[in-house]
Design goal:
Length: 294
């Protein structure tokens, strides 16, 4: 496994590998790797002739006052995990390599896809994400790029951007990997105290309850959301940033669950902001108006 810190060296190595005709898979991450990241890495290793992983805590996707400085980091552990999976290239650029003095170019994906949900709470977040992903895709030029469904809005923003800007990579979105109690794996889970960690599991319980209600025939989003809220509010120290039933393709709000929808959640647990989502599929002919739930 080769560890690369320089942008130009990474670009040259990737260009060389491309010319050998191998399918190149790429997994962009911010490090502090967990089983969620590793599922993307494994998918790439099994599907591609060569796998590149980037580890870069991207400052432009954090707003002032967010957790950029304290974002968890453990490069040594990340490298040893990636080595075990037989990753070929690990790209760990310094901030000044990615954003040298005078850096002035940003990629903005306009519209409701970036303005709503996480975009509403973190106004410049997706601009930072789109910018760094564009830069990484330009450096690596992978055949396939792997993203996680845990950050569904991010994956859809990247898909839109790749399509709009005629980028050549294929975007694959892999399922969310969860802890045994359902909590979506996240580097930010490390911020939680033992009691916060227990309460954080309510996020998945709330989503799963909503899914169960929808599958038993309830299609009214208001009723579904109330059930999810009741689960979340059964404990103190849990504050909902957003909880919405949305259309799977453009994340527009749905008053009634159509055949495929997502329940999207962002929740603060003792000040740590965690996001998750679940696919909810309405039973054919389900009830649009029932206010009583199941
Ligand atoms: P991050 O390091 O948090 O920026 O995440 C890097 C990639 O891993 C993104 O595409 C995330 O969506 C994905 N990812 C993070 N957590 C999970 C998870 N629990 N399951 C699957 N993918 C994940």
């Amino acid at each position: 496994m080769k560890i690369v810190k320089s942008v130009s060296e990474m670009a040259d190595l990737c260009a060389g590998e491309r010319s050998s005709g191998r399918i190149m898979g790429f997994v962009p991450t911010m490090g502090y790797l967990h089983a969620g990241h590793m599922s993307l890495v494994r998918a790439s290793v099994s599907e591609c002739g060569l796998t590149a992983v980037s580890v870069f805590v991207n400052p432009t996707q954090f707003s002032p006052g967010e957790d950029l400085k304290k974002y968890p980091r453990n490069l040594e552990r990340d490298i040893s995990l990636l080595e075990k999976e037989k990753v070929d290239l690990v790209f760990i650029p310094e901030e000044r390599q990615m954003y040298p003095d005078g850096y002035s170019t940003f990629v903005d994906v306009d519209g409701s896809l970036t303005e709503r949900l996480c975009g509403a709470s973190r106004p410049r977040h997706f601009r930072g994400v789109a910018t760094v992903v564009t830069k990484l895709l330009n450096i690596v030029e992978p055949t396939i790029s792997y993203f996680g469904q845990k950050d569904l809005q991010q994956a859809l923003v990247i898909r839109r951007m790749v399509s709009d800007l005629n980028m050549k990579t294929i975007i694959k979105v892999m399922p969310t990997v969860r802890e045994p109690d359902g909590l979506a794996m996240s580097s930010r889970n490390s911020y939680l105290s033992a009691s916060g960690r227990m309460r954080a599991s309510l996020i998945f319980k709330a989503l799963d309850k909503a899914r169960e209600i929808a599958e038993s025939g309830q299609r009214n989003s208001g009723v579904i959301l109330k059930e999810a809220r009741d689960v979340l509010f059964s404990q103190e120290g849990v504050v909902v940033d957003y909880l919405e039933v949305v259309n799977w393709s453009d994340l527009s709000v749905l008053e009634y669950v159509e055949d495929k929808a997502y329940l999207m959640a962002a929740v603060f647990v003792d000040g740590t902001r965690l996001i998750d989502n679940i696919e909810i599929t309405a039973k054919a002919g389900g009830n649009k108006n029932d206010k009583t739930g199941i």
